[in-house]
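Subject: Sanity check before I submit

Could someone independently write out the structure tokens for this chain? I want to compare against mine line by line before I put it in a report. The sequence has 378 residues.
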Amino acid sequence: MKAFKIFVSALALAGLMGMGLTSCKEDKLGPTIFPDEEDVLDPNSYTYKLDKFLKENYLQVYNLEFRYKMQDVGTDMDYNLVPATYENSIDMAVLTKHLWFDVYKDIVNPEFLKQYGPRIIHLIGSPAYNANSGSMVLGLAEGGLKVSLFRVNAMNINDFDQMNEYYFKTMHHEFCHILHQTKSYPVEFNTISTGHYDGSNWQDRQEGVVASLGFVTTYASSAYREDFAEVMANYIVKTDAQWNRILELAARGWESPSSADDPNAYYYCFYYYKDNVAGDDNKAYAQETQVATVEEDGVTHYYLGSQRDKSGNRIVVYPVEDKDGIDGVAAINQKVEIMRNWLKNEWGVDLDALRAEVQERQVSYDIEELRKWVTEIE
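---
Independent answer below. Compare away.
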């Protein structure tokens, strides 16, 4: 069986994160893949409450086995892995129900994930590192049947951007793959960014560069199917500010200074200023974090922070001209529209309603109340 793998590169760990998967095949599932024998739970077991919650809310409702007691036979033996902690498993179990399964139940219908959702979710406490690519595996999906989530022991319940990046975006990404394996998405999608995918070096690309080329993440630029899944996953979990940031980057030009210009320069830059020492015909590049944006009389001005030239004037910086010949914003919006129509026409799913529900839930939940679903079980 082929498998999806979701990676984040070493560079992504520094803040520019990318995700991705490889292809897998469609499996024909019967009414259940689990034994018919009743699994009798031990009320005296330390894990009884979580085990009962998982049985009643996942197995009996969705025919899904939620595994947190790591099984060697269910993991890749090439990695040194450890189990997820009991406490983090509780949090992941209740949040997955609240932010994924209950969303589809309320927005689509109660039967949707029963029919099309995965049959196994497997939690693993540690990350899995890929030495060959310098990346870290975030998730693994096998044939639309099983989804494994790594580094559960490092989850920070108070940092929802991290929770989205490592777990919930992964879930939506994987589920998108399950859906498009069942009903193919329009081939028109594959033509939008033809010639700009890089399956070998995507982890070395920068978020601003790929956005300008029409991709929502670095991993989206690795292959057509990953692009499609990343559009759905990011559109659903990104806040308005985060999504608009992607579009802002997509609208801008960028340049890659040579090491001779500045050995410490970013791989790409969006601004430059005239080097008054070397002469007006020479550019010196400014990192985005160095640029101050000032609104004056309805006009936006860009300055090199608070620095001033020899005459005491603020140093003006200029946006780099967009020379790649691609309207990144139009490309991203076109991809979202294809996704929106495909979900509506093929699945009866309203993408924007789904997004709105996730957005509301992920900023309003009370983790202590959700934990009671488990801790108050008799």
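---
OP: Matches mine. For the report I'm noting this point. Residues 160-182 form the longest helix (23 residues).
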